[in-house]
Amino acid sequence: MSEHRREARPAPARHGPVRISLVMTRCLLRNLPRFFCASPKTPLRVLGIIALDSLRTLRTSQPLSRKRAGELATVLDFLGCTNAAWDHKDLCRKEHEATRERLHRARLGAHIDAYLSRLRELESRRPRTGGDHRRFDEVRSYREAVARLCVGTIAAIALDAKGDNATTLPTERDPDVATLVRILLQCQIIDDVVDYTDDVSAGLPSFLTATGSVSQALELTSAAARSYGAGGELAAGVAIFPFRITLALFTAAATLVVRLAERRYRQDPNLEAACRRAGT
User: Is residue 55 a contact partner of residue 176, using CB atoms and an 8 Å limit?
Assistant: First the structure.
């Protein structure tokens, strides 16, 4: 990422499929109760904890402690709440500040402060909506930068085996972390298709609101989804196979959602104008 200093790290050790499968299974079973807990607030965030717990175990032979996994759940909810606040969505300020203080007491304050500073820098350059192909590229770059920041922050916390609270984020050359970023971007594409009318109303930059024509945006978004699913672009090697399989599944889901939206707009040429009128 260009928004912060990078750290040179040795390439992560590769493990065989049996070892990876056993670790992933143990981490899944260990974190299964989190699907029924108040925090984190979404199943996708629980899957993120399972993924990072597995990655930490494979790289350090030390799984996330119960305490650190709980703190990671709090961090994920805090990041989601912070991003929602930048989108002018509902935010309980007292709860937000209380969570931030709790994370500081957990000695994660450096990570949180660094995240907020980097996010503020990105949001200060947030692109507008309703442009052309070039504007789509700007919005796509902005969404990618925010996704890298979110995943990089939680990965830095989860992989901090020494407990030194270092805030340097994993680089794009880490194939496992890069794959998690791509999975998140596929989720954002799905959300952008589903929330198109709301995003238009709020003036939020998304894959679909980036251009003045939603048909053009869908065509460009389809190409973006395919590129995120292309594992060959990972510069530092190949991610572990469960991450690759998950990326393939989310790529298929995002591609299908975009294709259905394209068909819907082709069948009803007046739908785009109706959605924009509803948004205003």
Answer: yes
